[in-house]
Amino acid sequence: MSDFIQRLREQRANTWEQAKALLDTAAAENRDLSAEEQSSYDRMNADLDSIAERVKSIEEQEQRNADMDAAFASIAEGRKAPAILAEPTQNELRKFLRGESRSFEVRPDGPVNFRDLTKGTATAGGNIVPTSFYNQLVQHMIEVSGILSAGPTVLQTSGGENFEVPTTTAHSSGALVAEAAAIAESDPAFAKRTLGAYKYGVLIQVARELIDDTGVDLEGYLSMQAGRAVGNAFGAHLATGTGSSQPSGIVTGSSLGVTGGTGVAGAFTADNLIDLFYSVIAPYRNSPSAGWIMRDATVAAVRKLKGSDNNYLWQPGLQAGVPDLLLGKPVHTDPNIAATGTTAKSVLFGDVSAYFVRLAGGVRFERSDEYAFNSDLVTFRCLVRGDGVLVDQTGAVKHFAGAAT
């Protein structure tokens, strides 16, 4: 991890300390935040989120750089002796640039101008490097859907036929038996959850002139748009899908953990979240995949809450790979989770790995020059088939619901 990232994390921690000081001052004086203090607190909350996004972006770029270095190192280790070509033809040069030929040696007669060709600089090679659509699409789907990044069990299959997952709904129970008395029967109960393959797609058409004349990374732009469109549709159903002609969302499959108090418009208290935490039994609660899911606006409210020990329930992540924590468990955000409100299921907690996501056949990104031939448009389409269901519905994931009034 770079020193710059560490400084950003320290800046985020300092911002959080300043926000806590505002809240503590108001609490000590038994009053709400003043208008000026509320404005400062909101600004600090925005800074916390902004710095977190910046750290994430830099870490992803460092990972891409590391992957690229590893790929070049792998190529270098397997490199064969170069073929000696006195005057390489244009065809041979194209093969080399496409990666079909490992290397060749050129012995020019005149002076040589040595330059580095890199992917990072557009005019020095970046403009001739193709964009990997599949990787970018998956990346954007994860960024849009907090469910996918929260740690569900992801199943990738080549086909889209129904995929059934057997599960238990009840266990056998033993009992004290008197001497010579009959032993009561207690059988386990079983069920199965079915994962199908619902199709999500988007169509994008681009003028031929734009493709021929563009000076920007058009492929990257199209992949971003397609990924966001498909990811938004699929991710929304992974969160709150009804299960009827669409995936069953994790909220839909969750069970009630805690209901809020009346007269507070569905808002929760610190005690409500602690009760929700302990409403999930220890085997699920202590799972490495256990975590919280809520929308960003809800996180802002959580940051104000203190436990009975007068410590804040929310703690910012200060190390690489360590997310923000609530009662010691990671916090994931998803814009499709309901906002706090009467009867709204605004906070989830539990073992997210009990939610199964099925992807059938991978992501398809296809091009057609003939579909809109009469308009001279090039058509791109992106398709993905998938489904989701909470396989263990015995209490692995529970939700907080606002009171009815």
From TrEMBL:
Compartments it resides in: Virion
Gene3D superfamilies xref list: hypothetical protein PF0899 domain (3.30.2320.10), Major capsid protein gp5 (3.30.2400.10)
Phage capsid-like C-terminal domain location: 125-397
Organism: Nocardioides phosphati
Coiled-coil boundaries: none
Main location: virion
The protein, known as: Phage capsid protein
Transmembrane regions listed in the UniProt entry: none
